[in-house]
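Exercise: predict the fold of this chain.
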Amino acid sequence: MKTLLTITLIATAMFSLDAQTIRDRSNVQVGTIQSDGTIRDRSNAQVGKIESDGAVRDRSNAQIGKIESDGTIRNRSNSQIGKVESDGTVRDRSNAQIGKVESNGTVRDRSNAQIGSASGIKKEWAAVAFFFFKEM
């Protein structure tokens, strides 16, 4: 019994470390992004996935966009809809700054107001989740 309890606790801890929480400006959990790129909503339903090659997929696994190695974000038509710079600055298709993903995971809008957080994940993934997922 003790061994079963230990295994259960280890498995639970491993699952918890596998997903990073996405929070809104009120610090309420709105979803998670798992280490494999799976995006889940607050009900734990899969809403999309970001693959290791940068492909962004919807809940039906259809490719809806792509994150390129230089931070450029493209929609399903391959049109550039934004870019995430190395410092976390997020720009729209017109190169206007629309936000920033800070190194600690804080996500800010163009007015520098905190709109959420997503610590422990790539800046590009956080930017897609907060700024571009609906545009793809």
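Check your answer against the key: The chain has two helices and twelve strands.
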